C-alpha cells in the first residue's frame, strides 16, 4: 500500500473502524456513512451503529439516522441475484455489479437532496460474517467514483481478509487488479496472529485533518510487544511464502468443494478465493431457501466427530465458513472435505 503514508495504530478492530469514521468526518466535514446489508465492523457503539449484522438482529444499539444501508453485492442471495448458470459468467457478474453500485449512487443522491453529506462508504473487502460474499469485479471501483463525486471517502475493512487470506494478493481489495485504491484501510486480527493489534492506513492529508487542534493518542496502540507481533507475522508470511501457499491451497479447496456440491443437493452455492470460502446450504436449490438447521447440525457433528471447527454464519445462519490458518495444507483439505461429505451424507438420509 505504497500510496498510504500514515499508519495509526490501535488495539482491537473496533477502535480502528471507529477511528476511520473520525478521519472521514474530519476530512470531509460530512457526518453520514453508507454501509452494506449484513455488514459487521466492530462492537463499540459507533461501529455497532455501522453494523446491520448487529442492529438488524435485535441489538440494543439501533440504526442511527446518519447510517444508510446499501444492498449487499451478493449475486446469489441479494437484490440483483443471478441464475445458477450465470454465477460464473463474467458479463452477467459485471452487469450485476453495476446495478449494485448504482444502488449506492441512489442513496448518495437521496442523502444530498435532504441537505446532508456522506463522509464515508464502509465495506469489508469481502463480506465475512454477512455470508462470505465476493463482490463482482469493478463494483468497488464504480462505488468509489460515485462516493468521491459526492465528497465522501472509501473505507475498506480488511480486518478479516488482509495479510494474504485471498492468495497472491496481500489485500483483498486488490483481488481484481482493477486499479481501485481505497482512501482508508483498516486492519487487525491476522495482523497480530491472535495478539490484540489493529491499525488504520490512509493518506497524509486525511490523517492531518484528524482532531483539529487535538492530536491522536492511544494508550496501547503501537506498543513494543504489539509491534513485535506484527513484524513476526509479516516475516513468517514472507519467509514461508504464505501468499503463494494460500493461492495454491485455495485452488485445490475450490475443486474439492465443487465436487462436493455436485454430490449434495443441499449445497446451493460455493463461493470464495484463497483460504476464504463459504458453503451456502439450502433446503431446495431452485428456491434457494436457506437451511439453518442443517448448517448448525453440520458444524456440531464435525466438531464432535472429527474435531473440525467450522462456523455457520450469514443473515440466515446457513453459510458454512471455511477460513483456516494460512498454513492449512493439502492433507487438511482432504480431511475437512471428507468429513464434511460424511456428515452431509448422514444428515440428509
TrEMBL record:
Sorted UniProt keywords: Pyridoxal phosphate
Pfam families per UniProt: Aminotran_3
An annotated Gene Ontology molecular function: transaminase activity
GO cellular component term, pick one: mitochondrion
SUPFAM superfamilies: PLP-dependent transferases
Annotated InterPro entries: Aminotrans_3, Aminotrans_3_PPA_site, PyrdxlP-dep_Trfase, PyrdxlP-dep_Trfase_major, PyrdxlP-dep_Trfase_small
Membership in a protein family: Belongs to the class-III pyridoxal-phosphate-dependent aminotransferase family.
Name the UniProt record assigns to this protein: Alanine--glyoxylate aminotransferase 2-like
Species name: Caenorhabditis tropicalis
